[in-house]
Amino acid sequence: MARYYTDEHEWIDVEGDTATVGITDYAQGQLGDIVFVELPAVGTSVEKGKDAAVVESVKAASDVYAPIDGEVTETNDALDDDPALVNSSPEDGGWFFKLTIADTSQLEGLMDEAAYQSFVEGL
Amino acid sequence: MRYLPLTDTDREAMLAKVGASSIDDLFADVPEEARLSGPIEGLPLHASEMAVERHMRRLSKKNLAAADAPFFLGAGAYRHHVPATVDHIIQRGEFLTAYTPYQPEIAQGTLQMLFEFQTQVARLYGCAVANASMYDGSTACWEAVAMAARVTRRKRVVLSGALHPHYAEVVRTMAKFTDDEIADALPSLQGTPDNDGLIARIDDETSCVVVQYPDILGRIPDLAAIADAAHARGALLIAVNTEPVALGAIRSPGELGADIVVGEGQAIGVGLQFGGPYLGLFAVRDAKHVRQMPGRLCGETVDAEGKRGFVLTLSTREQHIRREKATSNICTNSGLCALAFSVHMTLLGEKGLRQLAAWNHSLACKAADRLTQIPGVRLLNDNFFNEFTVTLGTDARRVVRKLADDGVLAGVSLGRLFPQAEALKDGLLVAVTETTTEEDIETLASALQEALA
């Protein structure tokens, strides 16, 4: 399994031709208490860099962008009842959705963990 | 706020500061054809206060006011008695001049009032959650349609033919800017609404069915049957109520299965006010839909010391936060009209509302009985609350005009509401409230008999 990051603070775990997407620990810290997550419907085609989900904190709503093209195969229903999972476990239990990877070459432009860490430190 | 007019020197200083040479230069961004080139025709540049008062008094004498004549107009705006207490309370500065209650630390009074209002509307409508109000019934109706599209992700909107035509028009106007497809119809002149016909129009693409309750002809549709049929197809039922007093006598739309209940709250506390400002009511039966609701929502919470308090909540739905992705372009509410509603409703109480409703209904029955004694006048409705339709055997517009000239405001002709529907032109919609006296009913009956003779 390989993990990549985007400059919009999404993470993506790649396993075979499936990927899991969520938002980073840095992102949840910036948002504060998360009260609602709007996830895409299963079967939706998402496009790299375009809106795929919405995350709401007490005072703001932010778009979550798809890191790569793909079709949504599963969403994290646990977030319906407990959106705060994104705060407590952003890069594990608080995942957003899974998708089938349309084009693996799109992963090449993403950051690895070290690159993302230095990107965040520079913000 | 004092009004302090500007001097020419003030204006020059301000223009100089922003780098404009003249007022016209300041407004250079406004296309020239949209700008006034001189004074407005027929309007003097200035007049003394006394002269303006005299002029306005002369104009107002041309009106025949609701309180000065036997008055039977309804069709979505009703003349009810508003207790003097209502006006006294809403004039208090703390309410009258309060601004948006975004800061709960200083707006507990306004917030608590909104919370009480929402509670009253939710109970009246048989719903889980009501918002803090919308502009009026027709815009609330559109907001419900837009919400149904979000919930169902479908685009086909089925309007009952017996929905107030102005509400249908607002829905059609707003739908010009979305990709919703509006399927509308005309009402048929029969005693009972055509439920089967409406149900037959629901398909698997339908986002919602919009049904007025009581409907534009005063009839009470079978909401439960329509709700079941809509739900079987995965569509939502939107119930529209234009006369909240009716809900003191008939079962609430939420109880009968309506998913979204909207309406006009003007009848309680607000008064006719020449047609506005009015009060839109909006509620959802099931709290699971709360995040898809439009408008402002007030919630109960506790502060750091555990004391009960109120805040605007779930604001991320609204456009001041969510911008173009908001559930609605509205993130305000009709605060003062909502307060008037809430004060009047509090004075009535549940028992008082039931009594008021019973009184309205019994007077309406007396009026229907009396009018149908007139040769040529037929009652259309199998049932009604405080408003019913009679057919006159002749164009009702003409009759209404004649009676108005004789000082009787007889009702709203269907020809006025549905000018395109020749089949409805004999219909007259007659509304009766607690402000109607038996003498008024008798005056209407004799004038009508004379006009039809």
TrEMBL record, chain A:
InterPro entries: 2-oxoA_DH_lipoyl-BS, Biotin_lipoyl, GCV_H, GCV_H/Fam206, GCV_H_sub, Single_hybrid_motif
Keyword field: Lipoyl
Domain Lipoyl-binding, chain residue ranges per copy: 18-100
Subunit record text: The glycine cleavage system is composed of four proteins: P, T, L and H.
Pfam families (alphabetical): GCV_H (PF01597)
Cofactor: (R)-lipoate
Cofactor binding note of this UniProt entry: Binds 1 lipoyl cofactor covalently.
This protein's name: Glycine cleavage system H protein
Keyword Nucleotidyltransferase carried by entry: no
Modified residues (N6-lipoyllysine): K59
Family: Belongs to the GcvH family.
General function of this protein: The glycine cleavage system catalyzes the degradation of glycine. The H protein shuttles the methylamine group of glycine from the P protein to the T protein.
SUPFAM superfamilies tied to this protein: Single hybrid motif
Automatic annotation (TrEMBL), chain B:
Enzyme class: oxidoreductase
InterPro entries documented for this protein: GcvPA, GDC-P_N, PyrdxlP-dep_Trfase, PyrdxlP-dep_Trfase_major, PyrdxlP-dep_Trfase_small
E.C. number(s) listed in UniProt: 1.4.4.2
Name of the featured protein: Probable glycine dehydrogenase (decarboxylating) subunit 1
HAMAP family in the cross-refs: GcvPA
Keywords from the named record: Oxidoreductase
Role noted for this protein: The glycine cleavage system catalyzes the degradation of glycine. The P protein binds the alpha-amino group of glycine through its pyridoxal phosphate cofactor; CO(2) is released and the remaining methylamine moiety is then transferred to the lipoamide cofactor of the H protein.
Pfam annotation, one family: GDC-P
GO MF term (any one): glycine dehydrogenase (decarboxylating) activity
Reactions listed under catalytic activity: N(6)-[(R)-lipoyl]-L-lysyl-[glycine-cleavage complex H protein] + glycine + H(+) = N(6)-[(R)-S(8)-aminomethyldihydrolipoyl]-L-lysyl-[glycine-cleavage complex H protein] + CO2
Positions of the Glycine cleavage system P-protein N-terminal domain: 1-447
Family: Belongs to the GcvP family. N-terminal subunit subfamily.
Subunit structure, interactors included: The glycine cleavage system is composed of four proteins: P, T, L and H. In this organism, the P 'protein' is a heterodimer of two subunits.
PANTHER family referenced in this protein's UniProt entry, alphabetically: GLYCINE CLEAVAGE SYSTEM P-PROTEIN, GLYCINE DEHYDROGENASE (DECARBOXYLATING)
Gene3D superfamilies reported for this sequence: Aspartate Aminotransferase, domain 1, Type I PLP-dependent aspartate aminotransferase-like (Major domain)
Superkingdom as given in the UniProt entry: Bacteria
